[in-house]
Amino acid sequence: MKHIQSLPEPSADALQHSQKLVERICDEIKNTANANTRNTNNNGSISFRRYMEMALYEPALGYYVAGTHKIGAAGDFITAPEISPLFSQCIANQCAGILKKYKKGGGWVLELGAGSGIMASDILLELERLEQLPEQYLILDLSPDLIQRQQQLLTERVPHLLNRVKWINQLPENFDGIIIGNEVLDAMPVEVFTQHNDQLYQHHVIWENNQLFEQLQPANESLQQLVEALNIPQQATPYTSETNPNLDGWFKALSKSINSAVILLIDYGYPRKEYYLPERNKGTLICHYQHLINEAPLFYPGLQDITASVDFTAVAEAADNAGLSITGFTSQAAFLANAGLENYFMQELDKNPDNQYKLAQQVRTLSLPSEMGERFKVIALTKAIDKDDNNSDMIGFSSLDQRYRL
Ligand SMILES: C[S@@+](CC[C@H](N)C(=O)[O-])C[C@H]1O[C@@H](n2cnc3c(N)ncnc32)[C@H](O)[C@@H]1O
After folding, report:
1. CATH topology for 80-187+249-273+309-405?
2. Under 8 Å between Cβ of 94 and 339
3. Residue among 90, 184, 188 to mutate when testing ligand 1 (max atoms within 8 A of CB)
4. Closest Cα partner for 19 from 61, 56, 59?
5. Distance between CA atoms of residues 53 and 62, nearest Å
């Protein structure tokens, strides 16, 4: 991935698509000017969080909702399950241990934000090999476009298991089993704030001279409370960062839908103490456009991914507030090593001896500290899972469980 500031010009069709979304955003900005809000801009403004939500999820137009390719070589970014089946095999191995607890196939799998569907198909194949197939593999995604791709890919890759896969459009009730989400948390809209001279500012988006601009406004009360809880030391120079205000509500809804479950979330981010460091004074928000990283979220809304690293302490707090237990936290490298990466590597090598270089490269990308190994973390949350064997089934955390860092 290269870091750049100027982006290749999109096609005429793509530009037209982005323009439609800009018009929708602009309408919403103008409407806030008419409404009697505490908006400090006469021409109206929306919070950055709302902008990001529209850029990613606005019906028919948002980045995840509309038809750009997004994930994979032909898209804008690549994720661990796209890099190698070894990743999903390790996840499946962890799932198998949990599914064993549910006698007579009572435990299901629910995957949140399944992307291209590659992880679902690799997990199903490995669970089949381990004779731990769940009766149902549920997929919940916000992206109609990706759901279509998932259906196509699963039909091609695991036609014989398709009867177990079900797409749902809301959280289930009384769920028992394992819930997994790779890179879902980082795709949630965040508030961006700047602390300077004892003042807290909230980033807004305005429309001026036929362009979208970011504007700093005094932070509203709820953002002030959220940022106060982060305990960021005052800096002499402006300090910009971000926080996800939706975590509490999201985990409460998730917890409510569960009877008993292990939730496994994998994402890039840090425990809070390592997130809001003085030197990280520009935050972590980045955009992906055709495998180029940039820091310009207002460019071409709807055509590029916008994402922020995850504050795993905030995740643990929100999960705790929602009645979930924090059962494990570790780096992706440690999780994969514990969950059998080496064995899976040997197994794949046996099947394809000519692929040694390629497979070794995949292992390196997934687990080297300078690649995904340390930047990505895995957190396990549980509800109503038998305390006695709590961690014995959590093979991914059997060594280097780092909950103390949260
Ligand atoms: C960065 S992509 C990751 C896709 C896939 N898990 C992978 O690793 O390739 C984020 C995915 O999360 C989905 N998503 C975002 N928020 C979600 C939510 N609240 N519930 C379910 N899916 C969500 C998006 O639609 C998208 O499929």
Report:
1. Rossmann fold (3.40.50)
2. yes
3. 184
4. 61
5. 8
Residue 101 CA to residue 252 CA, distance in Å, equals 24
Length of the chain: 406
Query: What per-residue confidence (pLDDT) applies to 74?
Result: 82
Q: Per-residue confidence at 36, pLDDT binned at 50, 70, 90?
A: low
pLDDT tens-digit series, residues 236-288: 899 999 999 999 999 999 999 999 999 999 999 999 999 999 999 999 999 99
Closest residue to atom 14 of ligand 1, CA basis:
113
184 φ, ψ to 5°? Answer: -95, -40
Average pLDDT, the chain: 93
Confidence of residue 105 (pLDDT cuts 50, 70, 90): low
DSSP annotation string for 23-35: HHHHHHHHHHHHS
Look at residue 73 in the predicted model and tell me its pLDDT. 82
Most confident listed range (68-72, 241-245, 390-394) = 241-245
Rounded Cα distance, 64 and 38, in Å: 31
User: CA-to-CA distance for 142 and 113, rounded, in angstroms?
Assistant: 7
State both tokens at 350.
């046996």
**What separation, in Å, do the N-terminal and C-terminal C-alpha atoms of the chain show?**
29
Q: Taking the model in full, what pTM does it have?
A: 0.95
Q: Which amino acid is at 198?
A: D
Q: Kind of pairing, strands 137-140 and 165-168?
A: parallel
Q: Are strands 376-383 and 258-270 parallel, antiparallel or unpaired?
A: antiparallel
184 ligand 1 Cβ < 6 A: yes
Dist. CA 395 → ligand 1 center (Å): 25
- Angle (CA) 265 335 271, round 5°: 55
